[in-house]
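Late entry, written up from scratch paper. The run itself happened at the end of the previous shift, but nothing got recorded in the book at the time, so transcribing now.
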Amino acid sequence: MKKLAFICVSLIFNFQLSIFNSACAQWFTGMSQKTGLALCFHLTDSAVSLYSPMQSADPIPVSSWSLEGNRLTIECNRIGLKINLTRRDNTFVGNWKQSILKEDITFFPTDTLFQMRRPQTPQPPYRFDEETVTADYTDSQGNPVHLEGTLTYPKGSGKYPTIVLVSGSGQQNRDEEIMQHRPFLVLADYLASHGIAVLRYDDRSMGASTGEVEKADTRLFAEDAEAMFNALKDNPHVDSKHLGIGGHSEGGAIAPMVAAGNKNVKFVVMLAGQGCTGLDVLLQQNEAIFRANGVGEHLLSIRQNCMRELFNLPAGSSQKEYKAVIARHTDGLTKEQIDSIGLGRGTAAAMKQQMDSRWMQTFLTLDPAEYLPKVSCPVLALNGSKDCQVLAEPNLQRIKSLCPQTEIRLLPGLNHLFQHCTSGAPGEYMLIEETFAPEAMKALADWILKQ
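Output as recorded:
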């Protein structure tokens, strides 16, 4: 997919340029969720220049373009590309089409041609020491699993308070790397400089780790996390009396799942972890993301009602049944309206494929009420106020109600990845230079050292 001639938008990735609030911006950048590539255009009264900067510094030849009112159209016949956009405040939203591919996209104002800049990523020589940690075991499905990670600790000898970090949904490497952001490495560097050791590991099938993934779900990934936690039991750099587990997003659910059954866990950290059921999290996420992208309340309501019905279809439902649900809810809408709420052509097939997975079937019914009340150690739950994927208020409040000893912290202006942001929409992630907000790392370090 990444070898296509260009491409544009993003839904769960992150990078930044400097976003600024000038409605007169000339540079605009979007990201492609399907390909992970940036697309930029430079707009003046008399010309449009188009770039795929992650592939080439040369512009893509524009065959024709027009700007009529708030509507911008760009065509590149050489690569079969057409872009249709509408200006909304200081962004452009719409879609691109190239051959059989079509994708929604949001272009955000930037101050220059996009470059991948990750200033927080630590560079050698590091201010910490590290060693490899492995775990080999057979999971509850009978699959052999080999896990490998890196234990980072302050330079010198000694035993340190330690946290095992668990990544979010989707298979990721030990740095939880997303579009050249390496949040777990950034965290490990920061925490080591404050006297805290960190174990981060490759998810099964990623990096140096192996194991069955196709039939894996959140509960199975919790077994992996516990195996890595147990691997630190006798490590000479780890203070086992101050050994905890934490995670981001799905990892923020896995951490308390492990703690609920393992009394050796001395503290838990939930970074944008869920407090509501999986079904509620998905519905909250859908509404927040589309609202952040400028969709009005009437169309939002239609999408929410449709998604609720789709999520509640029995496993194994046919694609025809998915199409019927979507057709019923979108009856009477224009093609543009249908596309604006992500229910256009191809949605039924994509939804069926996603819904038939074991991971999704488990996640929809996952309820923190099953495990959070069983956690007896101290818990810290952090969320960004602009998180559109795990909404802060409903999830933090339910975590607190299920696990009263939890210290909940709402961090203003941060998104799901704990970056400072504008709207919190996932389309911004890649446009953000910052990997992890300093105040979030400080809150985490201060709390761990307090335990």
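The CA atoms of residues 22 and 356 lie 44 Å apart.
(Scratch paper discarded after transcription.)
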